[in-house]
Design goal:
The chain is an alpha+beta fold. The protein folds into two domains: 112 residues, Rossmann fold; 155 residues, Tumour Suppressor Smad4 (Sandwich). Helix content is 30%, strand content 30%. The chain has a six-stranded antiparallel sheet with strand order 4-3-16-13-6-7. The protein has a six-stranded antiparallel sheet with strand order 12-11-8-5-14-15.
Length: 296
Amino acid sequence: MNPRSRRGLRHREKALHALIEAGCEVREVVTSHPGHASEVIRARNEIWDAVFVLGGDGTVMEVVSALAYSGIPIGVLPGGTGNLVAGVLGVPLGIRKAVRGLVTGEKTALDLGQLPDGRFFTFAAGVGVDVAMVERTSHGGKKAFGMISYAITAIRAAFQRDLVRVTVEVDGQTVQARAVLAMVANAGSILGGRFAVGPNVRPDDGELDLCVFSPERMREVLDVLWRLLRRDFSPHPRMQFLRGKKFSVRSDPPVAVQADGDIVGKTPIEIRVAPMAADFLIPKPTGMPPAMPFGG
C-alpha cells in the first residue's frame, strides 16, 4: 500500500478488513519510498498466492514490473487518482466490492509493454497530452477532483494544440505526424469502457497498438474527441493506427514520455510487447466479455 496515493491511506483499513473477511491470510507492506514494493517482492522471503496493490498507477506499474513472468497473480485495488489499470481490468472503484470481486475472480494472463530499462506498463506509454496530464495536473486538483482533474488538463492541452513532431517505426513501417498525442497502447478502453483510444486494442493478442492523433484546428480537435467517444475509428486524416511488436519513438526536439501515469524518460525510446507477461485477477461479477473491457 502506498500511503501517498490519493485513496491508499484512506481505504487501507477497508481493504484489510475485506481481505480478512474473505478468508485471506494477509501480510501488509506499507511502502516508504519509490522502489520499496519492488524490493519486497524481489526479496521473495515468503510464498504468496497473490499480491494485492493499493495505490496509484505508478505503484501498480512497480508491482507489475517486479512480478512479470512470476506466475503470481496481481489484484489491483483502486487507490490512486486515475486508476487506469484498475479500470482496464474492470475492477470496481469501491474498495470492499473490489476486494470481493478479485478474491473470487479469475486469473488471467495478459500482455505488457516493456521499456528499455526493463520496466513494464499495463495500459499505455506515449507523448503529447498524456504527458501534459501527468506533469501539469496539480496535487490539489487531483486531491479535490480525482480523474476529472486529469481530464481537464488533457482537454486544455489538446485545445492549445501542443504538437509533437514525432516519428514512430513499427516493425519496419514508419509513421510521421505533428501529433497532439502519440500512444503505444496495450489496452483500448478506460473509464469503465466508456472511452476508447483505438480500434480493437487488446492486452491478450501478443501485440501493441500505435494510436496517433494530429488535429491542427479547433474544429479537428472536437471532431477527433467526438469520434473517440463514439468509438468511430473509420479512416480519418487526423488519426492513424498501426499494430505491431516493436516500436521506436523519436521526436524533434526530444520530449518526455509517460507510461501508466509515470514519466519514464525522454524520446528517443524503444518499446516492445511482452506477450502474456503478467497474471492479473479479473473480477467475475463486473467482468464483461473480453471484447468490451479490452477492445476498442
